Amino acid sequence: MTDLITADAPKAEYILGDKSVNRMGYGAMQLAGPGVFGPPRDNDAAIAVLRAAVERGVNHIDTSDFYGPHVTNKLIKEALHPYPEGLVIVTKIGARRGDDGSWNPAFSPADLTAAVHDNLRNLGLDVLEVVNLRLMFGVHGPAEGSLEGPLTALAELKAQRLVRHIGLSNVTPTQIAEGRRICEIVCVQNHYNLANRTDDAMIDALAAEAVAYVPYFPLGGFSPLQSAALSAVAARLEASPMQVALAWLLQRAPNILLIPGTSTLDHLAENLAAPELRLSHEDLAELEG
Hints:
Strand content: 15-25%
CATH class: Alpha Beta
Radius of gyration: 18 Å
Structural class: alpha/beta
Helix content: 25-40%
Number of helices: 10
Strand order of the largest sheet: 3-4-5-8-9-10-11
CATH topology: TIM Barrel
Number of domains: 1
Oligomer: single chain
Low-confidence stretches: none
Shape: globular
Number of strands: 11
CATH architecture: Alpha-Beta Barrel
Order of helices and strands: EEEHEHEEEHEHEHEHEHHHH
CATH superfamily: NADP-dependent oxidoreductase domain
């Protein structure tokens, strides 16, 4: 819980699967068009952001072939292939996009197999380092339901050596427990940030098991975080409110890996500077308010 947050300098790295990654990563979702649908507004700018991220030390990129669809993975391949040693690309499966941009479940073994092969082809890989099974029982948030069928199918793809490690996304504690009875789970990706604290207990439980937790929408997503306390702390530290929100997450728990997304070089630089911030006990107390 929040009383475990300290003002000590957070560690810079954490294990994801069997590789150590920098805790400040990059999420590729915003490189697609509006609504995560269609091509980017500026292809060259998207390529430049990806290359700059890796040049600045990012070695954990989050993506999916249903971003676009088939847009962000192709951009990553164009920008970075052949990939530098140590770069971990994490993708997710379990959904498909409708012609109208809708997000639809795609849980059958055939769907999941096709999704893995799409990701392999569009990323130019022979094996996917980490694949998150994205549950769609609740499209915009977790909802209960058994994941045995789709997770078993994904575990079979791992047995075929198409996938090295498996994670879960948009899940409840009950689903995590069910999933860990089927296969090893190396990470959980759920909605979490300074204002959305539903997963507090989950994060602490996963930290005790050395399982990575990757918050999506760490800055609020389509509704950016806004708070008088956040603005006050940022002004005192001569930082942006979003940098403070990211720094808070890094100090929240050692197993949190960040994947803030952006399509601009300026915003990328701002995000990557967040680990330099140190929030004091007073700062943390004010943010708790």
